[in-house]
Every structure is written in structure tokens, then in C-alpha cells.
Amino acid sequence: MWQSQNEGYTWAQLFPKETILAFYHHKYSNDRAYLITNSDKFYYTTDTGRNWHSGSAPNPPNGFSAQILQFHPTSDYLIWVGQKDCDGRTSKCRTEAHFSRDNGRKWTYIESHVRNCAFLKDTQLDADPTTILCESYARKTDDMRKMGKNPLELVGGANFYQRKKRMFEAIVGFAKFSEFLIVAEVTSRLFNDFSTILNVEIVTAQQGRPRAASLIGRLELCSWKVPSFGASRNARKLLFIQAMGCCLNIHRRIPFLNRPRRHCSYI
User: Fold this and answer.
1) Fewer beta carbons under 10 A from the terminal one: N or C of the chain?
2) What is the mean pLDDT of the chain?
3) Of residues 209 and 239, which shows the higher confidence score?
4) Are 200 and 184 in contact (CB under 8 A)?
């Protein structure tokens, strides 16, 4: 990792003895950045790189393509998704998520077997600042390298995950756009062509809803017919993106890809 403080005229190598796996720029604070190593050590700056400090994570960064660091509008709040028991031939390899409220000085356990964890609060999403959302696998005993069919649930927890609640039983993923939270839920139903329905819900955080009163409110729904057999992980991700675009096309009149099998309904 190399750094220049004069627009590239000169360069200095940062931590040459370390193996740097990733660089994260704080989403809400321009003067903060993080360097992730291949161990539980990371480096951070709070003054645009003039000074770097070392920190200790609760475990090494995960090797499952999950985002390692998640941020919060309150700059010191962080979520770290690492991995545990993944050395050698152990059968308990899994991801583990932890949060910190002091920029990584102290970490508190959230959940294991997660694909993604993030704070619900965003700049434009006016929600409980203590709520954490996790894409969490239902079975916690599986080795994540040999997961097989294990439903991915959306779990939300207020008070920094102390009061957690399952919001959706089978999802593809969730995302935050502007003032909306988007959840893609897979619901198996039988059709002539043996397909499933991918329901994408765009919800606000200001209004109550019995199913998830503390998290989500007004509902706009998109339905997308998805082949239920043999869909790869990349195909599921692509369908998630396409379906989100379908919803946004209705709500904001944003042009999107013209797909002959696309069906959107607005509630």
C-alpha cells in the first residue's frame, strides 16, 4: 500500500511488512480510512492519512466475500465481519460479526453465520440508530464452506442487537437506497413453469407495520419470476439487482432494463 500527500509527486509505502487485503474509506467521514491486513490487526487514520494507528479486530477478516467493515453516521460506530475456526480441516468454519462504538477499541459480539451485517441508520434513512440488520443463515451448526441448502434470513436487532427479531425467513439480500430499505424475499410458489416469486419490498422507517413495526413501514412491492432450480449465486444476485431496478422504475420513474418476463405491481 502506497500513499501520496502531494497529488502523486512523491510516494511512501505504508507498513511494508504487512499484507494489506483491503482499503476502506469511511462512508460518512472523509478524514477516516482503514487498512485491513490478513490478521486481526488493522490500521486506521482519522486525519486524512497524516497519521496512522493500529487496532485489533476480534478475529481475522472473512474469506467469504462479505464486506468486512460497515459504517454508521456516528463516525466511531463500526461493524466488523470476520471469520473463526477456518484454519485447517475444522468443520466449524464460520463468519462472526462484532460491533464497536469507539472506533475499534472494544468489540461486542453480534451473530455468527452471517453474510452481511449493517446499521439500519443512514444519512437519509431516518431510523433507530441502534438497530443492526443481518443476513443470517438459519442453521448455525454448518461449516460455511459446505453450507448446502441453508435459508438466509433477515434479522433485525434494536439496542445494538440485544432485542433481535426475524423479519424475513428467506431472502436474497437487503440494501439501502436514499430514505428506503429494500429487501428481496424469495417465496416458493407453484406455477406452470415451476418458478418462484422474488418479492422486493421498498419500505420506509417512519411508519409502523405489524410485521416489523420498529423497523419498516409503507410497502411497495415488486414481483419477479425466478427459476427455482439450479440458480447460481451470481444469478440470484443479478435477479436481485434487476428486481430492485424494477421497483425503482415504478417509484421514481427511472428507466431500467427491458426484460420480457418482468412483472411489477405497485401497492
Assistant:
1) C
2) 77
3) 239
4) yes
Using CA atoms, how far apart are residues 85 and 101, in angstroms rounded to an integer?
A: 26
pLDDT number for residue 188:
55
Four-residue CA torsion sign, 136, 138, 139, 145: negative
Distances (CA, A) of 127 to 10, 72, 100, 155, 258: 44, 12, 19, 16, 34
Q: Give me 222's grid cell.
A: 415488486
What per-residue confidence (pLDDT) applies to 70?
97
The letter for the amino acid at 139 is R
State pTM to two decimals.
Answer: 0.75
- 183 phi-psi bin (left φ>0, alpha ψ -120 to 50, beta other): beta
72-128 pLDDT, tens digit per residue, is 999 999 999 999 999 877 788 999 999 999 999 999 999 999 999 999 999 888 888
Domain positions in the chain are 170-267
Is the four-CA dihedral 143, 149, 154, 157 of positive or negative sign? Answer: negative
The CA distance from 62 to 60, in Å, is 6
